[in-house]
Every structure is written in C-alpha cells, then in structure tokens.
Write the structure tokens for this entry.
Amino acid sequence: MPDLALNHSRLLNALQACGARSGRAVRLLAVSKTQTAARVAECAALGQRAFGENYVQEAVPKITALHALDLEWHLIGPLQSNKCQTAARHFDWIQSIDREKIIKALDRHRPDSLPPLNVLIQVNIDAEPGKSGCMPTEIKALALHVAACRKLRLRGLMAIPDPATSGNGMAFARMQQLFSQLRENHPATDTLSMGMSDDFPAAIAHGANLVRIGSALFGPRPTSR
Ligand SMILES: *Cc1c(COP(=O)(O)O)cnc(C)c1O
C-alpha cells in the first residue's frame, strides 16, 4: 500500500512550490475513483477536503458513507442527463458541464435546501474525437446559460488535454487565455481546473489553480481509468 501521508505532504509541497512561481495558491483535488470509502477517510484524516469522482454510481455510496466528514465532492467524469438528478443532490461541484441540456437538468434538480451547485465548463481543448467537453467557441453561450440558472454558480473552466502532448504546455496556455476571456464577462469566476499526476507542473505554470491528482496520491490504479 503506498504511503498516503507521505504522498499527500509531498504533493502539497510541490503544489505550493509551483504555485509560488506563478504567484497563485493551488488547491489539490484528490481523485478517489476506484478507492474505497475507508481509503478516502484515511486521506481526509490528513486534512484533505476536496475529492473527485468520475462515476455517479460509484461516488454516491462513498459520499453517503462519509457524510459526517463534511467533505467537498467534485464530479469530474462525463455526465449523462439521466444521472443529473442524483448528481445534483450529492455533489458540491460538477466539472464536466458541456451542453445546455445538462445545465438545465442540474438547475432543475438541485434541491433548494442545498447551496448553489458550483460548476465548471469542460473544454475539449485538443478537439479530440469522442472526448467530452465543448469547443472553445461554445464557452460564451454555455456560460450565459449557467449564469441564468438560480441554483448553479459558474466557477470557471476545466480541461483534460491530450496526455501525449500536454507536457509542452500549449493546450494549457490556450486554456489560460480562454479563462481570462471568460473572466471579462464573468468576473466572479475563480477556478481553472487542469493538471493531473503526470502534467500538473505545466498546468500550474499556465494558470491552473485546481489540480486533479489520483495516482500520484493513492498509487497506481488497477485499471487504466
Ligand atoms: C482519473 C482522472 C484524473 C487523475 O488522474 P491521475 O493521472 O491518476 O492523476 C484527473 N482528472 C480526470 C478527469 C480523471 O478522470
């Protein structure tokens, strides 16, 4: 079993060092897909608050089991419209908004008893076929749709660049520019989610302030997901 405490403190130090170079605080999102609720609790005991999950069905039992820990849960995987009701009731953030239908369904299903749902617009920045995310030209209209929803709060952008080329930083640099354009019309947006275990330094150098890290924290996953 990898040493979670050691990995966590090393990552926090690395994020602080990278962030200091670009004058920004960087938050760690612990990607807990395939990890048990017990392992998440172990990580939470180290002071980690924010956790990311890819699948609604996998996440809900963990979120429910760990309710008393008052963690912050982010959905980072693609969202089907038939899962919006469950997602809107359990998550604090949805990072994978890429079409109007999902925006409407989340707004409709977010319970009034909960604070507004934080959302990020996911951009398919390398225009990869079959990958979720909107095209850069669609951001403006989607942002207006979110802004018009009472129970959603637009926080920024998310991207998963092609890992084969993400290290060169070009996709991250394009995202940085798109984020600054978004902020011209939506000045309250504050989050640029990009960077994973293998490419987070390049992402932070280009403005990421929320990095999504799984394997460098919990150890390698059994499958490629
Ligand atoms: C799995 C996943 C991550 C974490 O990947 P690692 O390489 O294990 O750090 C980050 N973001 C998304 C969207 C993921 O699906």
